[in-house]
Fold:
Amino acid sequence: MPPSSGPVAHYATFIGLRYSFSRKRNRFTSVISMVSMLGMVIGVASLIAVLSVMNGFAGELRGRILSLVPHGYVEARDQGIEEWQGLRDQLLTYPGIVAASPYISDKVILGSGEMLRGAVLTAIDPGMERGVSQVAGSMVSGSLDGLDAEPFTVVLGSALARILRVQPGDQVDVTVPRLTVTPLGIFPRSKRLTVIGQFEVGAQPDTYQAYVSLITGQKLLGSPGLVDGLQVKTVDLYGAPEILADLGATLGRDYRVLDWSQTQGSLFSAVKLEKLMVSLLLLSVVAVAAFNIVSTLVMSVAEKRRDIAVLRTMGARAAGVMAIFVAHGLVLAVVGVSLGALLGVLLASSISGITGFVEGLFGVKLFDPAVYFISVLPSELRWTDVVAVVLASLLLSLLATLYPAWRASRISPAEVLRYE
Structure:
């Protein structure tokens, strides 16, 4: 007679393994078991691979955008900063800040011929800008230093230049949200700028960002000597929120201090939300596969009714019978989840090679650089994601085994053996 304490788990696991891998099972039950296991493999592998690709996309997006966007901003709460040189010197002495650069920024309309496009026009000091962003290193034509060499010149993002159909040497008309009072009336302020270069970071700023010199920006967007604020760079990108929060407390209420997680937070929050929604959708595939185990166990319980009755007459308790079928279902789930995790890790680790092979095999370009900001499919495998997927899949599988196992434990030996 099986004891009622520790050895229950031992004999339940043993019998559950026998039921899972026995060759004497009903053929239809075996097919359903294989389908359930295959669904688990596909669901887990797909979830791990897709999460890795989304991590890769988020990393690419973060790296490219934050190469152009400073780690933070220090702005005046009133009409601008006049003595910005002194403030810059003060910022450079603050622990954790390695560079600072003045800027003026506003939304404008750029036009070329019949083409009009909204853009963000930012006035910078090219020399100081090198310390806070990688715009200078992202130039594909011309030089950022040329903005200081000649007034009323502009550097455009490569995608923005293509939209406006301009090249270095061409001119664009800029209309700014300022009014000019003349004897003939009030008109929006506009000026013709000469394009001297293009930059490309391979992200959304390529489609809307334009740069002019600080002197040109003060004439177009502000007043001589005034700037909107200072862009700052910290020693650590991910430590910037904490560093700049302390800086804001030090500077007081006269200044507003923002970090990149605040200025770009909505974008990265959208990426996280998208990852969460895709994860839930793919997890539903795993859930369907997990609850296919219900069908397998229900059929197995019907097939093993005589075995259950014999075990109960030998002294097995209802909990022991329930443990047998929980073990039976979990064995199928563990095998499926393990194979799916292994396949998912392999796919995530070699996704770039797989896409390259497909492109070479069919002679197509899946990610055309002329259309997309990327040319290869990025992937970043995180073991925390793998562990989370495995645990969630096993939990769903455990829940799926409970009802059939409970039904098995409720079988009455007398009812079964009466007709034997």
Notes: The longest helix spans residues 27-68.
